[in-house]
């Protein structure tokens, strides 16, 4: 499956820029490529960048999801854009997609940054949110303000509601513009971690970023992180939870830029 790509790069290509791998940005569940625009614009001043809508998200096609399938989507899309090998940067679900591709096709991944997700089943599921979203009754016409009022009953959290508003098609015949039913049906796979055969590792440079207030990356994950990614480093972003790139964007950008400049 070819995925939707937002590509940005420097105005002038220099020999140094031309020789560096492209940077690929992968969003988390219910997000989309354009949500990472702040970081993409910063990186694109000196590097070729591709922000990607994973399947069922943004403007990409829909279908059932598991990490091997999504990694295959990513590989096909990057090959189509002549963007391999690449530096992969993934948050949450996007981080699992990036790790799966790195472990199964390590030669296609130049370096790897994973934001607040371990190579493990994580829990903290979104079944309740997905089921609530499927129940939303859309009227014949809806504007943005009306969409916000409509979602208040189903999604009381302001931040989560603002995120989900980006996934609504407004105007006549409103509805979800994402593959919501496919996402909900695939949530057991999304929350899980795929089977990785014994001996598969990614030996390249790997940086895990963890939110200081997030429950996702925990000490019990360090052993599997070391076994699968023997060259990994872990950095903690204080005063941030799972959405660490939203809650502390400057620190996230600093660590991201330092990593991509070094590798």
TrEMBL record:
Keyword Hydrolase found: yes
Enzyme class: hydrolase
Enzyme Commission code(s) on record: 3.1.-.-
Top-rank lineage group of the source organism: Bacteria
Keywords of this entry: Hydrolase
Molecular function GO terms recorded: carboxylic ester hydrolase activity
Occurrences of domain AB hydrolase-1 (ranges): 23-254
Stored Pfam families: Abhydrolase_6
Keyword Hydrolase among UniProt keywords: yes
Record's protein name: Esterase YbfF
Organism of this sequence: Komagataeibacter europaeus (Gluconacetobacter europaeus)
Gene expressing this chain: ybfF2
């Amino acid at each position: 499956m070819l995925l939707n790509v937002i590509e940005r790069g420097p105005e002038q290509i220099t020999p140094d820029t031309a020789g560096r791998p492209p940077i690929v940005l992968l969003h988390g569940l219910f997000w989309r490529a354009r949500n990472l625009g702040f970081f993409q614009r910063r990186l694109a001043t000196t590097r070729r960048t591709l922000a990607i809508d994973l399947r069922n998200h943004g403007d990409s096609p829909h279908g059932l999801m598991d990490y091997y399938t999504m990694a295959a989507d990513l590989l096909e899309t990057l090959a189509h854009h002549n963007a391999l090998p690449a530096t992969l940067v993934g948050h949450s679900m996007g981080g699992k997609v990036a790790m799966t591709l790195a472990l199964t096709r390590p030669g296609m991944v130049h370096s790897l940054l994973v934001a607040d997700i371990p190579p493990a089943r994580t829990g903290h599921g979104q079944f309740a949110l997905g089921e609530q979203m499927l129940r939303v009754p859309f009227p014949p016409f809806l504007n943005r303000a009306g969409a916000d009022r409509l979602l208040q009953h189903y999604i009381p959290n302001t931040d989560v509601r603002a995120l989900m508003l980006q996934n609504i098609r407004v105007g006549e015949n409103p509805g979800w513009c994402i593959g919501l039913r496919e996402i909900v049906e695939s949530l057991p796979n999304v929350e899980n971690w795929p089977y990785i055969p014994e001996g598969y590792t990614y030996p390249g440079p790997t940086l895990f970023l963890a939110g200081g207030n997030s429950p996702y990356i925990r000490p019990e994950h360090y052993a599997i992180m070391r076994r699968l990614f023997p060259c990994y480093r872990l950095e903690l972003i204080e005063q941030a939870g799972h959405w660490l790139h939203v809650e502390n964007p400057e620190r996230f950008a600093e660590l991201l830029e330092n990593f991509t400049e070094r590798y």
